[in-house]
């Protein structure tokens, strides 16, 4: 592969290196402090040296030498810090993000401006490509953090923050909201799936397909209920007039492996439990309990699970 | 016309332990010693409450996917735990020791403003009570101790908890400002005429420098708190972006107070350590001038580091670099102090008493917390590790390993002065070892958890590799600390029941408070010994080898 980026360390590696340098220096300093504390305690214990010691008040020369050493170490770390900062947080003048993520209490909204894909919670990226992220929030402060893919960055309403993300290998990467954002902060987890560019393209194409229709009676009943029960006040379905983003976009909900910000596996039982009483599944969540009857839930599940 | 107002001599004696009766004497007291002790009791009571909250947190986190505590309650508990420990434990404990000791150490009979002193204490007490009243008024604050907007604003709160937080902290803030004014004036005006500023015991010096920090930091906090209170009560929009305010503005206000606050809590402990280590090494402090001057450096620098709490909000690289440099710089005077303390032990004759044990634990644990602190000045490391358990571990090493261990050293050290009784050193050692080992078990492992990706402030967590066992061990450590604290309370209880036996100077120490009976009379000094150096009692006890005369 002639990917230029692969020839250098990734952001995550750069930061890890810096952390390792820090660990080495801090480790030495700490070892010295421990050593001298214990050494003096043993060597100069009153049992061993009961006589009154000579009343030394210190030495300005020693003080000065130590200050110079400390300043030198600091200077080295200032240099390394600024250097790494500039490499990791190197955002172009007119940033064109590949992926825009908006934090909501307590889920993630994702848009791919180039292709026009809109999805939620389940986030896909292509491997081998440095991806520019635009981050913001719809409500309180959240923070985007997938440790293996890049730095963390706060999401603040009214502010657009940018950062880079990079996945070398295919696979699933876990992350989490890392600014306290209210009741269900703990359940605001992230799962990023990295696909090779070809599979990623295929995924995008699938997401761009219009919403599924069916002539199945239950499906149609569910569809109607979805509108009647005001689900559409919060949830968008692409290609319809319903464009609200208070809750996750459900256009291709059934194609997602997990839902509720990685809290639950996406299967019928979990979906049923969720619709029966969202508050019992994820208390405090911004979706009310609709007190649906069993048959209504059957229909809604058939509809939502049909949205492949 | 005279420019001066004559202050009338007090006709009646001020209410205090010796003149008044029973409990009322305490409530109405303006005696600095009584108030100092009341501050310490206040801190102790809230330490129990904050500690129980910590135990609830650890119980909930002992296992993955635990649902012992609901998220709503958990968020209140961790918010109250942090707020309590900072504003109602470490602050009043430091102020309390200062209030008790400053007049005694400078040869004065009272603080400069005895009534203000009482006012400050009662403000702090009232603030704490209001904060806790929130539990009965619908719910405690639940937006974390730094109370970030807009989560703390009306739209996102379901209770009045945050209002209680705001009003409670405004009151304790007023109390702290009063205490700071009092410390500064007392040190400047009531020193025994012999004592020049460069002869102050280091504890007094640290509290003195600290008072200036408090004087500048708390008004900032209170301004921010008032703005948010106006937001919440009168629908202003200071911190609401949707209507033209700024959420980040709150962060600036809070941390411009919040970082100095870290040093406000640390400096008194530095002062204690600077008394304890020399006394038990039988040597003067190594580099008095350096330790004193570096505190000023710390105080000044601590005002230019606040945005290192905000390295992930998206400030520019230039701004981040500025705050990275200043944060690393502040590590230099702090780090060198540690060398001074170790240097003091060099060629000493060390008595490993309970206060000295705590001072040693302070040296090691505070160094550790300081070093991990430097890692947060290295901006890219913050970009990965802030708001994880690595951060939680770091600041507990600073607040417990630093401030609290220092305060324990001080309490064991001055307890005989305050009560006339010596705390049992055998129980003291049990307290020490259980607490210090438990502390390291809990918090050392949390560094690892942070690096493994566990964020802070979560009421539950998935069963990811190693998370379970590390959290379990952390909870075990908390139990050890809990038992250690129970022994400490038992020790205090048992000791207070014994008769007073301690003489004036049980540790063979050197500063003026040890020239008074234990406990001191209502009037501290009938006659102040002459002071010619930084160690007046050393000079008296070692007439053939006195310190260099400084006046
Ligand atoms: Cu969040």
UniProtKB/TrEMBL annotation, chain A:
Coiled coil: none annotated. The chain crosses the membrane at residues 20-42, 62-82. This is cytochrome-c oxidase. Keywords: Copper, Electron transport, Heme, Iron, Membrane, Metal-binding, Respiratory chain, Translocase, Transmembrane, Transmembrane helix, Transport. Residues 1-92 form the Cytochrome oxidase subunit II transmembrane region profile domain. Subunits I and II form the functional core of the enzyme complex. Electrons originating in cytochrome c are transferred via heme a and Cu(A) to the binuclear center formed by heme a3 and Cu(B). It is a multi-pass membrane protein. InterPro entries: CcO_II (IPR045187), CcO_II-like_C (IPR002429), Copper_CuA (IPR001505), Cupredoxin (IPR008972), Cyt_c-like_dom (IPR009056), Cyt_c-like_dom_sf (IPR036909), Cyt_c_oxidase_su2 (IPR014222), Cyt_c_oxidase_su2_TM_dom (IPR011759). One of its GO terms (biological process) is ATP synthesis coupled electron transport. It comes from Bizionia arctica. One of its GO terms (cellular component) is membrane. Its main location: membrane. Its EC number is 7.1.1.9. Residues 217-308 form the Cytochrome c domain. It is found in: Membrane. Residues 94-206 form the Cytochrome oxidase subunit II copper A binding domain. Belongs to the cytochrome c oxidase subunit 2 family.
From TrEMBL, chain B:
It catalyses: 4 Fe(II)-[cytochrome c] + O2 + 8 H(+)(in) = 4 Fe(III)-[cytochrome c] + 2 H2O + 4 H(+)(out). Residues 20-532 form the Cytochrome oxidase subunit I profile domain. One of its GO terms (molecular function) is heme binding. It is a multi-pass membrane protein. It is an enzyme of class 7 (translocase). The chain crosses the membrane at residues 37-57, 77-104, 116-137, 164-190, 202-230, 262-280, 287-306, 318-336, 357-383, 395-415, 427-449, 469-490. Keywords: Cell membrane, Copper, Electron transport, Heme, Iron, Membrane, Metal-binding, Respiratory chain, Translocase, Transmembrane, Transmembrane helix, Transport. This is Cytochrome c oxidase subunit 1. It comes from Bizionia arctica.
């Amino acid at each position: 592969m002639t990917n230029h980026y692969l020839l250098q360390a990734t952001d995550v590696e750069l930061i890890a290196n810096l952390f390792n340098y820090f660990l080495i220096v801090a480790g030495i300093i700490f070892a010295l402090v421990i050593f001298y504390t214990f050494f003096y305690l043993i060597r100069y214990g009153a049992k061993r040296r009961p006589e009154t010691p000579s009343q030394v008040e210190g030495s300005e020369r020693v003080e000065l030498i130590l200050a110079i050493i400390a300043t030198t170490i600091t200077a080295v770390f200032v240099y390394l810090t600024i250097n790494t900062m500039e490499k990791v947080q190197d955002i172009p003048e007119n940033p064109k993000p590949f992926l825009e993520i908006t934090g909501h209490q307590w889920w993630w909204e994702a848009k791919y401006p180039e292709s026009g894909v809109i999805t939620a919670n389940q986030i896909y990226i292509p491997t081998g490509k440095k991806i520019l992220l635009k981050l913001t929030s719809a409500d309180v402060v959240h923070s985007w953090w997938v440790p293996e893919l890049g730095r963390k960055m706060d999401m603040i309403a009214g502010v657009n923050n940018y950062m880079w993300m990079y996945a070398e290998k295919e696979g699933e990467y876990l992350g989490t909201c890392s600014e306290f954002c209210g009741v269900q902060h703990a359940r605001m987890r992230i799962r990023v799936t990295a696909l090779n560019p070809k599979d990623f393209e295929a995924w995008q194409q699938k997401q761009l397909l219009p919403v599924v229709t069916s002539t199945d009676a239950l499906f149609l009943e569910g569809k109607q209920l979805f509108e009647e029960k005001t689900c559409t006040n919060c949830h968008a379905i692409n290609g319809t007039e319903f464009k609200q983003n208070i809750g996750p976009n459900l256009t291709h909900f059934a194609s997602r492996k997990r839902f509720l910000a990685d809290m639950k596996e996406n299967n019928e039982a979990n979906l049923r439990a969720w619709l029966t009483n969202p508050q019992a599944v994820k208390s405090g969540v911004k979706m009310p309990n609709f007190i649906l009857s069993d048959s209504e839930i059957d229909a809604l599940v058939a509809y939502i699970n049909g949205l492949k | 016309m005279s420019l001066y107002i004559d202050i009338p001599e007090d006709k009646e004696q001020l209410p205090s332990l010796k003149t008044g009766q029973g409990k009322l004497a305490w409530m109405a007291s303006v005696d600095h010693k009584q108030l100092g002790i009341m501050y310490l009791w206040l801190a102790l009571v809230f330490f129990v409450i904050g500690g129980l909250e910590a135990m609830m947190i650890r119980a909930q986190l002992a296992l993955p996917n635990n649902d012992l505590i609901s998220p709503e309650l958990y968020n209140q508990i961790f918010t109250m735990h942090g707020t309590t420990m900072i504003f109602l434990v470490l602050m009043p404990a430091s102020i309390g020791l200062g209030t008790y000791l400053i007049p005694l150490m400078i040869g004065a009979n009272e603080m400069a403003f005895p009534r203000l002193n009482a006012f400050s204490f009662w403000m702090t007490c009232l603030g704490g009570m209001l904060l806790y009243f929130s539990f009965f008024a619908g719910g405690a604050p639940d937006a974390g101790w730094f109370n970030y907007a807009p989560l703390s604003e009306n739209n996102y709160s379901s209770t009045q908890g945050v209002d209680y937080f705001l009003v409670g902290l405004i009151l304790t803030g007023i109390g702290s400002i009063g205490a700071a004014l009092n410390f500064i004036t007392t040190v400047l005006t009531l020193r025994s005429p012999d004592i020049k500023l460069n002869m102050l015991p280091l504890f007094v010096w640290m509290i003195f420098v600290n008072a200036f920090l408090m004087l500048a930091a708390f008004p900032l906090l209170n301004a921010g708190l008032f703005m948010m209170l106006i937001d919440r009560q009168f629908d202003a929009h200071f911190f609401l972006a949707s209507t033209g305010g700024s959420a980040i503005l709150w962060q600036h206000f809070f941390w411009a107070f919040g970082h100095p606050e870290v040093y406000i809590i640390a400096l008194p402990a530095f002062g204690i350590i600077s008394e304890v280590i020399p006394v038990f090494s039988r040597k003067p402090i190594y580099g008095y001038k350096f330790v004193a001057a570096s505190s000023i450096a710390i105080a000044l620098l601590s005002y230019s580091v606040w945005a290192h709490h905000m390295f992930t909000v998206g400030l520019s690289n230039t701004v981040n670099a500025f705050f990275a440099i200043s944060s690393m710089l502040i590590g230099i005077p702090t780090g060198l102090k540690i060398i001074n303390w170790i240097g003091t032990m060099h060629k000493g004759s060390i008595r490993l008493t309970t206060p000295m044990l705590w001072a040693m634990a302070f040296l090691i644990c505070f160094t550790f917390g300081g070093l991990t602190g430097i890692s947060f000045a290295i901006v890219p490391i913050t970009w990965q590790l802030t708001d994880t358990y690595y951060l939680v571990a770091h600041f507990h090493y600073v607040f417990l390993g630093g401030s609290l261990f220092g305060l324990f050293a001080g309490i064991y050290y001055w307890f005989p002065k305050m009560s006339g009784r010596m705390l049992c050193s055998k129980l003291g050692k049990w307290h020490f070892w259980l607490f210090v080992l438990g502390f390291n078990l809990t918090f050392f492992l949390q560094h690892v958890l942070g690096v493994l990706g566990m964020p802070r402030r979560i009421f539950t967590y998935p069963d990811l590799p190693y998370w379970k066992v590390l959290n379990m061990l952390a909870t075990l450590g908390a139990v050890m600390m809990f038992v250690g604290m129970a022994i400490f309370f038992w020790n205090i209880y048992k000791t207070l029941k014994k008769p007073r036996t301690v003489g004036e100077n049980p540790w063979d120490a050197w500063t003026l408070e040890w020239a008074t009976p234990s406990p001191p009379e209502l009037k501290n000094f009938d006659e102040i010994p002459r002071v010619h150096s930084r160690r007046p009692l050393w000079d008296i006890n070692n007439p053939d080898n006195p310190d260099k005369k400084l006046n």
